[in-house]
Design brief:
Largest sheet of chain C: 5 strands, mixed
Number of strands of chain B: 10
Distance between the termini of chain C: 29 Å
Strand order of the largest sheet of chain C: 5-11-10-7-8
Shape of chain B: elongated
Number of helices of chain B: 5
Strand content of chain C: 35-45%
Largest interface: B-D, 103 and 117 residues
Largest sheet of chain B: 5 strands, mixed
CATH superfamily of chain C: Cupredoxins -  blue copper proteins
Chains: A mainly alpha (208), B alpha+beta (266), C mainly beta (247), D mainly alpha (604)
Number of strands of chain C: 17
Number of domains of chain B: 2
Radius of gyration of chain B: 26 Å
CATH class of chain C: Mainly Beta
Shape of chain C: globular
CATH architecture of chain C: Sandwich
Order of helices and strands of chain C: HEHEEEEEEEEEEEEEEEE
CATH topology of chain C: Immunoglobulin-like
Oligomer: heterotetramer
CATH architecture of the largest domain in chain B: Sandwich
CATH topology of the largest domain in chain B: Immunoglobulin-like
Number of helices of chain C: 2
Strand order of the largest sheet of chain B: 3-2-1-5-8
Order of helices and strands of chain B: HHHEEHEEEEEEEEH
Amino acid sequence: MSQSAIAAVTHHEVVMEASPYAMDKKKLGMWVFIVSDACSFAAFLFAYGYMRVGAPVWGTPFGFSSILNGVVMTAVLLSSSLTMLAATHASQTGEKASAGKWLGITMLLGTIFAALHLREWFKLIAEGWRLFYNPAGGAAQFGAAFFSVTGLHLTHVVTGVIVLAFIARGYRQGRYDETHVETAGLYWHFVDLVWMFVFPLMYLMNAH
Amino acid sequence: MAGKIFAVVVALITIVTAYCVIAHVWWMPVDISVHGPKIDHQIEETVLVAGLLFIAGQVVLAAFVFLYGGARNRIKQIPGGAKPLIVFAFLLVGTEIVALSFIGSKAWGAVYFEAPDPASMRVDVQAGQFAYYFRYPGPDGKFGSLHPDLINEGNQNYFGLDTDHDADAKDDIVTAELAIPVNKPILLTLHSKDVGHSFYARELRIQQDFVPGLNIPVHFTATQTGRFEIVCTQLCGLGHYNMKAYLSVLSPSDFDDWLRKQASMQ
Amino acid sequence: MKAQLRIAAFTLSLLLVALAFIRSAPTVGASATGQIVGTIKLDGQAPHLKPIDMSKDPACAQANGGAPVAAENVVVGANGGLANVVVYISQGLAGNEGAISSQPATIDQRGCKYVPHVVALNVGQHMTVLNSDKTAHNIHPQPSPTGGNGQWNKSQTAGAGPIDVAWANQEVAIPVKCNIHPWMRAYIAVVKGPFGVSNDTGSFRMDNVPPGTYTLTAWQETFGTQTQVVTVATGKPATSDFTFKAK
Amino acid sequence: MFAATAEKNIFLGVKIMPATAAQAAVHHAPPQGFIRKYIFSVDHKVIGIQYLTMSLVAVFVGMALSWAMRIHLAWPDAHIPLLGWLSPSGAPGGLMTPEYYLSLMTMHGTIMAFFVLTAAPLAGFGNFILPIQVGAADMAFPRLNMSSFWVTLVGFILACATFFIPDGPPLSGWTAYAPLSAVGSVAGPGQGWGQNLWGLSIVCFCIASLLGALNFIVTTLDLRTKGMTLPRLPLSTWGWFIDAWVSLLAFAVLLPTCLLLVLDRLAGTSFFIPSGLVINDQLQPHSGGSPLLFQHLFWFFGHPEVYIIILPAFGIVSHIMPTFIRKPLVGGWKVITFAEVAVGTLSFVVWGHHMFVSGMSPFMAMVFSVPTLFITIPSVIAVLVWVFSLYHANIRFDTPLLFSLGFVSLFISGGIGGFFLAQPSTDSYLHATSFVVGHFHFTMGLSAIFATLAGFYYWFPKMFGRMMNEKLGKVHFWLSFVLVYCVFMTMHLTGFAGAVRRYSALVDDFMVPLIPANKFMTIAALLLGATQFIFLFNAIWSRFKGPKAPNNPWDATTLEWDTTSPPPFDNFGGRQITVYHGPMEYDGEASVMQTSPAESVAGT
């Protein structure tokens, strides 16, 4: 816990005793954020569902290749959750080196996920998909739904990778401690969890 | 002192308000629809229920403020503490609520759950910035299909009818005023060509939004002849306050004459 | 009643045409200038136009005595003369447009109609919009998105002051509508150089046309455009008549 | 275990390692320099005051807009030179155009609902008071806190900026119903960049509110000092805490809604725009969207929003009353808090009552009607608690209490209207009439304003170290109280005659007879507005010239009164605070500070 004491000292609350009710505020804050962010995703997915139900014909454009790509992405993201877990564990048992290594791998996997996803995007755009146009026939809003929902998730992934990079750096330099790693982990798992909703709803349900 | 003034002020406000409601200083206009009385009744019920709560609340508040100002009273809580309050709230308000919902659902159902009379006269309503237009099927009893791309208000094609090619559309009668025969079931279909609008006829006790992309049925039967206003109550743009049409409820014979006259002008 | 209105509209459009002449006076070039006159006719039966029901707004209905009002998409006068046709020089003027009149063109909203129904003016010439009605209007010109003239939409309540506008680019013709009274429709023809608008007898007149050979274009809101080549010399007015075929 | 180690570390840090202690002292020292101290300050007290100042500006702007609207309604031909100067196109020669009226209406709603009623009671007072009340030195995330304020301010500036763009502010109302708000400038003046700026402004406000809510929740749970168990939390803190949860969930939905709206406007998507729309004879390119989707998403936020506005008011009033009636509330902290939790929870399942006539399934209307009616039960319980707590009290009629009593009266009157609007059958007549306008001005508008004013008079001494003028305060209250009823009760009543809201002029045959009533309301509204300048003067004058305030001018018991006025940078001057009592230790003249070990005096 020695780092946290240092961390505490760098904050002007130090002259008052830590609250007896205190749990780690970063962690609590992250949980609260996750609750709120989940609502935002829910709103997006609700909009998607509402449009889908409302549309007379909702196209199912995704063929085998897209689904396969999606499955690979899913596998990558899931395993990144595992490596994140390993990183958290290592940091808690004080194995800084391996924690850093696992963080690195997690970032790598996250990047791969993003790359695969962007490839999918560019493929669709090349095929003529737009926010307002659907070359495969069916509801014109398919593009709007797909790009906005997956785009929001992609933003989360990219943000996550960047955050992890900062955490890893700070952690190596001893500015951050295992609680930072764990908090970042919470976020990462959440993004993973969201994908578990996005993938079936956006891909599987739209596969022909 | 302040307490006494407060009590008096609150009491006065309560009395004036109650008077205005009871004396119907401003009140609903004559009701000309078959379902209307149910809604009026429901409003009166609610006035009674809510009114009593309003008066009770303000009076008790005023009374306590009147009585317990200053430092001379022995502090004590009401007997039984909060329990009686909670019980009161749940029992009294709860029952009122349940009662209102039950009676209310009847009135609501009368407007929305009863299927329209199959013999109803059908009229199409097109709302747009900032006017209503009405369409009668004409002799063939069929409405021509709508082609949004043909809508051109400059040529008075408000519905987008293809009168050149569409036989059903040829004899459709489009009017700027909603005329209906008295005591005949009417079935309106509301559609908006641009943004959200609303169909508010106070005397019919009907308010229903137009939602772009939806066809919304409204059915009613008018019981009195006369000329009334239909106004828009859904913010639709700069001319919102100017968006209205007239509803004339006519005797069957007058209505036929009117319709013939309109047909001749198409 | 209707007749009176027609007469009113007629005299007014005459007045305006006259005004146009007076205004175009300053466009006299250094050289002496010629004149183009002509008549525009409609060949065939004028299409049936549904009379306008203004009962939506009592103020409008009253202004027209409660009777349905004739639409103005096609106005055919005595012996087939076609009114509200804009005639302008579409080719051959080559920068010799002459000065723009400092007098503003005027369009009035009276009886919930635009008077005149078609107004022509020069690029950059000012235009005054009046409201003589006891009700509010909104003036909403809808130039083509590509034409370079911006669209705008302003209300003009009863008794509100005039609105002054000018147009930056040639466009024949900009439709104008009033959303509060959807039946209202006017056209603004923004042209370079001399122009004329046909009156109820179908005759038009273009003054101060520099001598030369030109392509004339006549535009009517329903029947579209026609062109003719005409040569103008000083002294005697050149004549060019147009005939639109009824659809 | 964590806490224990933390304590140990601190203990070591302070006792044995002088270096760390010195370092701590340095870190604890307040920031130097004007900018860091008053502008980009991370101090929750400064941020709270910044929020309140912004809201004060906003409320007077909003009020001025309502003045212009009211004048136009009563005297449609009135020329208001100032308006003509502000917007030559919107009000040529000062004569307001219908579109400008709607623009003013839209911005009145937006500014009041977001930048006044949401910002002041929660973000303003919450920021200043909550950390002190739980015995913390600052919010959990001070930098985050600072950023929330600045993002809010950006939102406010964007909102105000709409007045200065050529087309003026949007005219689609604060609810911005699609497709009117989604199709762009073709729908009317202000629907171009005005609506875009509006959307961005709301997006900013959402983000700021979410960060703020997160901060409040963590602060309340995490930074409570020794002995500050949840039951001992002051009721105001309870209000803010519950409110933070509601806004955390509600704004999380408004944010995506606004984003989708902006996408529809700028990126050509069709979430909210159906096929085949013909606007001004132009066929719109969009296809397939649903206006009802927007309404569902908006009101899923929109209804909790009105409780986001009113819950802090509940808290503030429940906190102020015991101090001035010198006895605990009936049922102690439990009942009122339960009521607040119930209201907050139910508020998420009633949004459909805004859509009874919107084309939503009539069955859904009845489904939504029932919880809407049931939400009155906790509300009634709260009211009963406030009213019956006055029984056998020793009421001290200082201005804060007067405004609290005013709040209760207004909340009763407003709540009554709810019975009419919660039932589809009655709502179908009263929907979109001035009855609704009167109803929400009573419940969320003026109730919240009265509670905010009560809080302002109550905490002013703590915030600025000076007392406000009591006489002016009372004048302010009496005039406001009476005039508020004159304006908004009349609105309720004319609503029965079907007076349609959001009309820029009363031209319909059945509206014309209501013009006298509107003249009356306008005059009352003008006076009501004028009255607020008494308050403004009082606040500014007292800020500099008011008598010095003692630490605890009201014989209150909560932590904020156990420190200097204004409190030092770390709130308690480094003292270790320990709490022994609940917040309502009153028995007539006797009262016990939460921090005093003395034994309890409160009966219940």
